[in-house]
Amino acid sequence: MPIINRIAEFHAEMTEWRRDLHAHPELGFEETRTSALIAERLCAFGCDEVATGIAKTGVVGVIRGRDAAAAPGRAIGLRADIDALPIAEATGLPHASKHPGRMHACGHDGHTTLVGLATGAALPAQQGRRGRGAVLLGGLLALAAVAALPRDALARLLDILPVAVNGLLAWHFGATLRPGREPLIARYTRLDWGRMPPECVGYARALTGFWAVTLGLLALAHAAAVLAPPAASAGGIGRGAVLAANAALVAALFLGEHALRTVRFPALGIASPLRTLRVMARASGGGGRPAVAAAAALGTEAATTTTGRHAG
Q1: CB-based burial, 185-224: b 16+ in 10 Å, e otherwise
Q2: Range(s) within the chain of domains with CATH label 3.40.630.10
Q3: Per-residue pLDDT of the chain (312 residues; tens, 9 = 90+)
């Protein structure tokens, strides 16, 4: 996806982040909340490395990029100050400073947000292009390998396939629940709405965990069936029936969850399974909206709540 379209996707969420930073200003070398928020976002975006505690409250994110080996020693750095000023805010805005005597009066809340915007817009784009090529090549190689298998080996592969697929999907969901990561369902929700609806934060994490556990249990059940003694599995259902039952169960849970979500969050409208599938396809770099106005609006808002500037 073009970078300019990625910016539009993040517009609403970035506006919320800037307002949050503006409402919680911290003076120099005291920006513990600010640096924790920055580190969490960099991890969620997928930076290769995130270092904290630099010069006490500094944060550094490292993106290796696709062509790092072709240009060793070369890098581009994006920097933002994160400290506020010892000034009382009198703007009267809903997101005005909640701390008397402190204010983001020089735009550092906007600077920090814009660096995050650049990171979030660039990372999925460069990773998505690399990922699609790898998936395509891997798929072609897998098909060629399967076609060359003898009948007995193919039958064994069909036994192992549900274990591998369910296990990999369980790991894929579960890995995003680690500290500093964005839960997978939360990522899909953010891509769908252009922001993360606050009422869905806990639900998205819980749903990600549900799929991780469910798929993991399916993998274990299939593994137990594969490892069972021949006498115990003789006369059992066929491989095709096992695969069909697995797919039917996952599909039923997928559709049922959408019905539950429609009832639980009526303000968000009907939860469409087809819409979710389209968002999942976009997750590796789909379409977006033009974003020049979005970036300009974010910068304009930061300027209108700035009452002064200082060097740094």
Answers
A1: bbbbbbbbebbbeeebeebbbebbbebbebbbebbeebbe
A2: 3-121+290-304
A3: 455 566 677 777 788 889 999 999 999 889 988 888 888 778 777 777 777 778 788 888 888 766 656 666 677 888 889 999 999 999 999 999 999 999 999 888 888 888 877 776 666 544 444 445 555 565 666 666 666 667 676 666 667 778 888 888 899 899 888 876 778 888 788 777 766 777 888 898 899 999 999 999 988 888 887 776 654 444 445 566 777 888 899 999 999 999 999 999 898 889 899 988 888 876 654 433 333 344 444 444 444 444 433 433
Kindly write down the DSSP assignment for every residue of 33-88, as one continuous string.
HHHHHHHHHHHHHT-SEEEEEETTTEEEEE---TTTTTSTT-----------BS--
Architecture label for domain 3-121+290-304 = 3-Layer(aba) Sandwich (3.40)
Q: Please list, in sequence order, all residues whose beta carbon lies within 8 angstroms of the beta carbon of residue 159, skipping any fewer than 6 positions away.
A: 225, 226, 239
**The token pair that represents 178 in the structure block:** 């680690």
Contact call for residues 300 and 293 (beta carbons, < 8 A): no
